[in-house]
Design brief:
By secondary structure, this protein is α/β, with parallel strands linked by helices. The chain is built from 17 helices and 8 strands.
């Protein structure tokens, strides 16, 4: 069974640990891993680079990762620098609460004693804020700006010197990927199809006489990894990525969203097209944790934890974005249809908003009770296209009428019932 369906089998922990010790293992890094370095504490960056130095003979970047890093680096530096300005603004807003908002309450005349306590509180907070601002200036100076020397970039330049893949041979090579990508994305073959939602409208760009389409970036990287894996001296590929989308990692919801490994389709494809016998995807935190274990070097738990929290925060933001997109689509439908149809859509909007609130609390639960079929955002997105087909409103109105006659709404939501009924018409 395993020899036939190898893509469905994750490498064991023992196999991954053994791969760390082999000269035939290639460590490949995604663009996000390099860019996130600009948001980490100094010790975390140092620990990360310490691991890279230990395995420097076995590290490699796809050409497109290098290109994406160079194109996005200054934007990331600018955003990180801007965070200090935002903190400054938030601190000033606290002062304005006392000097304006509370002062407008006229406590001095109405509640003199309370006013004295408020003034005392304001004074104490001001002392704390001034002290904090001094440390803020210190940290701000340490953060690189777009015009300053970039120490992270210097490190990357040294470590990956002569360890970057070749650029595409010609435009035809890229065009073949774009053509394949259309079919892959339509059929949700990983990786990259999740980028279509956000990047389809991104403008193309030209670099070194080659035209690039942003939504196919992951697919370009994947093809470059496969081409590199065809090297007969490479037997294992460990891809380090903090991409949270489902078109790289397979995840399940079991009292919280959990990643359980690379998508089976990815492993199957790279095993078929190369001679490697191990492919896995590690987050930065798992990479650092495994590096600490297998290289016998001192990597602080704080560094590992910081990269883990960063990844989890990206997951939360990504899932909130999914919910926002679903709400937007339902609201558009809501504005274009009849009252009965709108009631149906409004029922689902409430469910999505409830899941969104749970996400903000970092608590992933099923929309429906455990003893019923789960109905998550992913399933909803797949079914949403049914609402957009021509002449569907009359069908839904017919179904809604039947639902009301059967008195079933007490046991299940309207949208859940409609989707069950809809299957009879497919």
């Amino acid at each position: 069974m395993k020899s036939t369906f190898t893509g469905f089998y994750n490498p064991s922990e023992e196999e991954i640990n053994q791969a760390w010790k082999e000269d035939t293992t290639l460590f490949v890094f995604d663009t996000n891993v390099l860019l996130y370095l600009y948001s980490y504490a100094k010790n975390t960056k140092n620990d990360f680079f310490q691991i890279l130095e230990k395995i420097s003979n076995n590290i490699w970047l796809p050409y497109h990762v290098g290109l994406e890093y160079q194109r996005n680096r200054l934007k990331i530096v600018k955003n990180e620098k801007y965070n200090f300005s935002k903190i400054e603004k938030y601190l000033n807003d606290i002062d304005n609460i006392f000097t304006k908002n509370i002062k407008d309450l006229n406590l001095e005349q109405r509640h003199p004693k309370l006013n004295d306590s408020t003034d005392k509180l304001h004074s104490e907070i001001n002392v704390a804020i001034k002290k904090y601002k001094k440390s803020l200036v210190t940290w701000d100076k340490k953060q690189p700006c777009v015009m300053s020397s970039d120490e992270i970039r210097k490190k990357i330049n040294i470590l990956f010197d002569n360890k970057i893949g070749e650029k595409p041979n010609n435009q035809e090579w890229l065009q073949q990927i774009y053509n394949d990508g259309k079919d892959r994305y339509e059929n949700k073959v990983p990786p990259g199809y999740e980028d279509k939602k956000e990047k389809e409208k991104y403008p193309s760009f030209v670099y070194s006489d080659l035209k690039y389409i942003p939504m196919y970036g992951d697919l370009i990287i994947w093809n470059q990894i496969i081409d590199k894996a065809k090297d007969e001296n490479i037997k294992s590929v460990i891809f380090i990525s903090d991409d949270v989308k489902e078109d790289w990692l397979y995840s399940i919801d079991v009292k919280g969203k959990k990643e359980i490994g690379a998508r089976a389709e990815l492993r199957d494809e790279i095993y078929q097209k190369s001679n490697i016998n191990l492919f896995t995807i590690l987050t930065t935190s798992d990479f650092m944790k495994d590096g600490k274990l297998n290289l016998n070097i001192d990597v602080s738990d704080e560094s590992i934890n910081e990269t883990k929290i960063n990844f989890e925060n990206k997951q939360i933001k990504y899932n909130l974005k999914l919910h926002e997109n679903l709400l937007k689509q339902f609201e558009e439908l809501n504005s274009n249809n009849s009252v009965s149809y709108n009631d149906l859509i409004q029922d689902q909007i409430k469910d999505i908003e409830r899941e969104k609130k749970l996400t903000l609390n970092n608590k992933w639960l099923d929309i429906f009770d455990d003893n019923r079929n789960t109905f998550t955002s992913k399933i909803l997105q797949e079914e949403l296209d049914e609402f957009k087909k021509p002449n569907m409103e009359s069908l839904y109105l017919e179904i809604m009428k039947g639902i009301e006659q059967e008195k079933t709404l007490k046991e299940e939501t309207a949208i859940e019932r409609v989707l069950k009924e809809l299957k009879k018409y497919k």
